[in-house]
Amino acid sequence: MASVLSLSVSGTALAAKCPQAQAIYADRDGVYELAFEPVGSEAAVVSHLFKIRLAKGDLFLNGHIMPGDEVVRSNGMIMHNCPTGDVTGEEIAACTVWEGVIYPLGADGEIGEAVPEADAEAADRLLLAGFGPALRYSNAWEEKKLTTVPWDVLAYKECAQ
After folding, report:
1. DSSP label at residue 53
2. What is the rounded distance in angstroms from the CA atom of residue 82 to the CA atom of residue 95?
């Protein structure tokens, strides 16, 4: 039990030194990674950008978070091979792998309202409820010949430089 506690505390200490915009997370099996990246514009509609990739393989999914309008929530979308330029809602729907709320989880297991701001201390863990099954039944699964369904909780792994 002491080793589990020390891992949790050391992970928290590492996340505390990393801004959210540079945080990298991994699923429990170490197969998938979610890496945040700077948005790059003060006028952007999205609050966060990220990519999900296989630790070993060529799957790359693009994601973003938009803050909730009336209720404080981090509304996320994860997409695969979306067209660029002037696209229709139907085209976006066809390439969307997952859409839902991304919840930050504290070291104490408490669920937060929203993913921390880009320059704030990174969250210890992220919950993307239903992401694993959504990926399993998406067009990316067959196209990339995936075999492992990711867990919906991703733990802080490291800080990008």
Report:
1. E
2. 5
The amino acid sitting at 68 is G
How distant, in Å, are the alpha carbons of 50, 60, 73, 91 from that of 87? 21, 20, 26, 6
Contacts of 55 (CB under 8 A, 6+ apart): 26, 30, 31, 32, 33
List the one residue out of 156, 152, 69 whose CA is nearest residue 121. Answer: 156
CA separation, residue 112 to residues 9, 23, 94, 132 (Å)? 18, 17, 30, 21
Place of tokens 């790059």: 40
> pLDDT, tens digit, for every residue of 125-143?
999 999 999 999 999 999 9
